[in-house]
Amino acid sequence: MTKPPSHRLVPTKVAALAVGVSEATIRKWVSRGKITRYGAPHCPSEFDIEELTEIALQRRT
């Protein structure tokens, strides 16, 4: 999978706010393979805002 452009990547806190869940839920989703985490090991996690937008839209229906 290709890494999205950097302007589309957001940190965990922003990802959680965008979807309306806790940061712990974002981490659970990563471990379950529901969303993709970007960033090297031992570096801050980043998430694609477009992927998060899709999840947020799915949660509203």
Question: Key terms for this structure?
Answer:
3 helices; 49% helix; Helix-turn-helix domain-containing protein; single chain; 10% strand; 61 residues; two-stranded antiparallel sheet; mainly alpha
What is the element layout, followed by pairings?
Elements: E1 9-11, H1 12-19, H2 23-32, E2 46-48, H3 49-60
Organism: Streptomyces flavalbus
Protein name: Helix-turn-helix domain-containing protein
Low-confidence stretches are none
Order of helices and strands: EHHEH
Largest sheet: 2 strands, antiparallel
| N/C terminus separation | 28 Å
The gyration radius over C-alpha positions equals 11 Å
| Oligomer description | single chain
What is the residue-averaged pLDDT?
92
Spatial strand sequence of the major β-sheet? 1-2
What would you say this structure looks like, in words?
With 61 residues, the protein is mainly alpha-helical. The chain has three helices and two strands; from the N terminus they run E-H-H-E-H. It has helices spanning 12-19, 23-32, 49-60, and strands at residues 9-11, 46-48. It has a two-stranded antiparallel sheet. The radius of gyration is 11 Å and the shape is globular. The protein starts with 8 loop residues before the first strand and ends with a helix.
